[in-house]
Amino acid sequence: MYPKDYRYSKEHEWVRVEEGVCTVGITHFAQDELGEVVFVELPEVGQSFDAHDEIGSIESVKAVAEVYTPVAGEVVAANEALVDAPERVNEDPHGEGWLVKIKFSSQADLDELMSAEEYEEFLTSGG
Amino acid sequence: MSEKPALLSSPLHDRHVAAGAKLVEFAGWEMPVQYGGVIGEHRAVRSAAGLFDVSHMGEFLVTGPGAQSFIQRLTPNDVAKLTPGRAHYSGLLTTAGTYLDDLLVYRLGEEEFLLVVNAANTQKDLAWLREQLDGEVELADRSMDYALLALQGPKALKILQPLTETELSAMRYYRFADGVVAGCPSLISRTGYTGEDGFELYLQPADAAAVWDRLLETGTPAGLVPAGLGARDTLRLEAGMALYGHEIDDTTTPWDAGLDWVVKLDKGDFVGCQALVAQKEAGTERRLVGFEVEGRGIARQGHPVMADGKRVGEVTSGTWSPTFEKALGMAYVPHSLAEPETELALEVRGKLLTARVVKLPFYKRST
Asked: What is the pTM of this model?
């Protein structure tokens, strides 16, 4: 269920690292809790954030969830396809439902994140 | 670790689990909020039919000499107009004319009534009614003696008719009859909370699963799906129907909520009557309106209506509408902002959303 090469935050975001750039999204658990996504609010390319800053929100029929960046850095891409197809967050949360790409500035932020195994453990223990 | 009181389970609990329902706590019960998804269930109700388990609702039997006077005294609508086999929508009001609950009153017989109340208010309503009892009127809490299924949608009649000998097309809206559904005794009423045609089936709890199964067996080929509380809320909101704890509560009167038609001031005295007469003369300070958000974002209960940097009103309910594919809601606003097409500013998480006042209901069925 949870890709082994991703890392995970307690706020139910995942991170995939490729050459200094992190792709960030929300996990299957998070989209399931939210329900059917109808609006996604994303940051602008070029914006910089500290780790754990709020970078946007995901709104479903019944609820809204803030999205936090697990890593500090600069936004180099935002998944504009989600404006017209927000349901991708539900249908493919670990793939096509990605939210932003961030050029990250500190390895330390990544080291704080959980492995897939740790995240699954976190979920079963009521995280 | 703290101990929580156990949640009540519907007689259909196992069916919900088997159907893949997401169960949530609601009014002390564990109930299905959705099966496949709110949007799909909502659209199924509008185009075919949905089957809801609402067994958590409260039911009280009021009988004996003086039963009619008792209910007449405690509700604003005119019970004298009900003949056996007719029901109406009403309220339980305080002496201030504000809502303790909204409810349906069914007249079963000359001095025999069934009151159907919100799950969340069952104990509160019971305590109030018991306090007000006088003479020989008997009040019995029959909430645990009924399972309640709501079959709602344009295909509801077509799906239910093969399972009962009761002539459903002869049953008008807000009428009911004792019948048999799938071999099980049922009070069948042409009522609902979705803005579609439909029937509510009051059953013995032990029969609920059998009736549920037969309805789905007959109805699935016609497009029937099980539907949960999530869709129930988006449907009633589109239909402009009030939900206790949102549009109505113990700070709102029927005038505030646009429920003037529920109040029959000339029927005789009732609890809250004097306060309502006074408020009618003085005029209300606010109006309940419908609104449509322009652009992205959803305004929900509690979000302020802002004007000139000040809070002037509040959203009572809001959601994303599967039928209209935009964010809709209801809000209390000052009279000056209540005209259709008026622009409203709604504060949502620190930002102002623009919305437009729209006449209620948003949705009205064509048949």
From this structure: 0.94
